[in-house]
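Re: that chain you flagged

S.,

Sorry for the slow reply, it's been a week of failed gels. I finally had a moment to sit down with the sequence you sent. For the record, here it is as I used it:
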Amino acid sequence: MKRLSVLMVFLLAAAFAFTQSPGAQIRTLTGTVELKAPGSADWVPAKAGDLIEKATVISTGFKSMATLDLGSSTLMVRPLTRLSLNEIINQGGTETINVAMSAGRVRADVKPPAEGRTDFAISTTVATASVRGTIFDIDRASIRVIEGIVLYSSSSGKGKIARVGAGQKSQIDEDSGYAQNPMVKADIDRVLPAMAGQASTSPGSAGGSGLNVSPGVFDPGFTVKPITVFDPAITVRPKSRD
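Prediction finished late last night. Pasting the structure tokens below so you have them in one place:
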């Protein structure tokens, strides 16, 4: 019996070391920032240093911000934002952090722990962003990546996952519900204007990279319309009178 008790204590200690919370805390705040504990209907004013448990809802007011330490990562909560921490654990050297944002905008600086990694996800009402180490801004239906790569997708499961790199943007298309491919959009932005009735081509087409876009609808949801090109090299002289 004594040996069994010692073994149970050892196993419980090992389990605690294997799975534990990496910690969530308010580092700084300005203005009105409130917390609602899980199971509570009351909002309480937050202050720097407050520990945040799982399922706590965080709300920022007008001209108010908060910086949260989530394990090795940092989350900057912008004004008029409401979110909750659905999961924050450290298991076998991997930090798993899931944030659900119902309104507003945040900036996430995702960093893995020493000799480990971070699986970090932010979900809004229409989109999900999953990363393992990067910096990005996200709101309800759009994302801008500052550093690293983010896998961005529709929360409905529609369409493919967009791979959004540093300096790129993506958003959820209102009509299709799909995450727009930022690489496709960047290519379309570089498309040369077409004369009326002609197809538009990229700088590398006709023997180059070969992005050909006909006037009308391009599949990911971007519309390219022909425009009339004005050539400043053409000199127009008034017609002489007889």
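What I noticed first: Confidence is low (pLDDT under 50) at residues 4-20, 194-232.

Talk soon,
D.
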